[in-house]
Amino acid sequence: MNESREVIHSRIWEETPEADNPFAAAACYCSGYDVYGDLLGKASWVEYLYLLFKRERPEPFQAALLETLAVALANPGPREASVHAAMSGGVGGSTHASCLMAALAVGAGQYGGAHEVALAVACWQACGQDSTKWRDALRHPAQEERADIWPAMEHPPGFDPHGASCATPVRQTLDALARCHAAGALGWLQTHRESLEASAGCPLAMSGVAAAAMHDLGLDADQAEMLYLLLRLPGAAVHALEQREYGWRRFPFFANGLRLTNDPGPVGEI
Amino acid sequence: MQGPTKLLENEDNWVTDMGAWFPAERVVFRGKDLFRELGDLPWMGLLLYGITGRVPDEKQIRLFDAMWVLCTSYPDPRLWNNRVAALAGTARSTALLALGAANAVSEASLYGRRPGIRAIDFLLRAKQQLDQGVDLKRVVALELEKHKRIYGYGRPVTDQDERIVPLLTFAATLGFSDGVYVGLAFAVEEILLARPKPLHMNIAIVLAALAADQGLTPHEYYRFMALSFSAGMTACHVDAMQKPEGTLFPLSCKRLAYCGAPRRVWESV
């Protein structure tokens, strides 16, 4: 090999080639562990996921926390916007990848989506377990003076602007996650949930619980955003497949759901 | 807590002035009949009308069309967003998956959409401050102090941006090369060139200035540019599809430079 060739630098992945083909890996190592020669059959899916993100094997409580979070997030349900987007692809017979891309695009946003989780993780990093800092952050969020690709937040990150009270699955998820790890952000959130909701003016959302769990897993905002995107895809996938099977006639079109306020009416011949 | 009031109000009730399809009859697009009132508009004109609600005139359409043609679509698979389209081709994925992903990737921080929206936003804010009597040198200094950089100045690979002259030459034929914001962009460059680490303008600030001179807001400009790389991406996908599968920049195992944890064994608990 010409040593001056450009390389991909990685702290995650190493490969050794087969003797007969430099483009075929004989062994693949993830943070030092032989994936196909050692990990297979030993490491669980979430242990491996944690290893990929953190480059270390998880402690049992971390694996349990990630396992519980993964189940909680796996299917937001067909009414949720990212899943609705995937189903809109599926029902029209779009490619499966486009259905997942649709779910990622819609689920990336700031209303229940991955960017909201990233912003909420940033709040945890800034406020920790300090009630005063949280109250200030929720009541007086920082404003960016410059225009950006991301719009300004319209509600406190991690909370539900349309909620009346903290939804049962959100509370159940928070309780289940706090049972895995009571000492960190999750336990503190359990204790202070109602006062935070009062400061936010709206109830805690699943995105807020996910953010606290991600923070307890030691993930930064970028890692949390990525992981949240990944973990919500299973529901999008299966609902897209399901609606593809049901067909467009049995999928809501909202035929009488659109009201045009400036219809010029028929304006003559072409 | 406001509760679900807004959700209840909007259930099966999307109130809009953006448009609607009347099956087997007509389409209304921002208050106009698509077939009867907008049918003569070039696609670029329809795109701008959809974004801004204003029908651009013929000269504006030619300018905005040139902005896409001259500045955005290089059919070079080494460029990161194009590479996505080319990799999709070499992996034998579909053209629209390639284009969708490559366009989404173009919402980048180093190039594409973020520098674009930040560049026009800077120009508009700088003009506002000038109008309030602030000296331009002070405006530039404050911007650098606060945000560390001014989008549209400096370029990772080379100082000179080869797109500026062709674009401004074409804009001049339309009478658009000496607008207020184009002038401001050059005035800022003059200040930045006098600094210890001189910074030349790049195409992002010129495009932004031309758009600002035509009255586009930052978000209107951002949306207008959203699909602007598509021609080059499509060409990259075509190119890769015409070569043997898997042959775009293949990397042998030795091309991974590992610098992580040493070899270890996963002990069973």
UniProtKB/TrEMBL annotation, chain A:
Entry protein name: Citryl-CoA lyase
Annotated source species: Methylogaea oryzae
Automatic annotation (TrEMBL), chain B:
Pathway: Carbohydrate metabolism; tricarboxylic acid cycle; isocitrate from oxaloacetate: step 1/2
GO biological process assignments: tricarboxylic acid cycle
GO molecular function, one term: citrate synthase activity
UniProt cross-references to SUPFAM superfamilies, sorted A to Z: Citrate synthase
EC annotation from Swiss-Prot or TrEMBL: 2.3.3.16
Protein name listed in UniProt: citrate synthase (unknown stereospecificity)
Organism, as annotated: Methylogaea oryzae
Lineage, broadest ranks: Bacteria, Pseudomonadati, Pseudomonadota, Gammaproteobacteria, Methylococcales
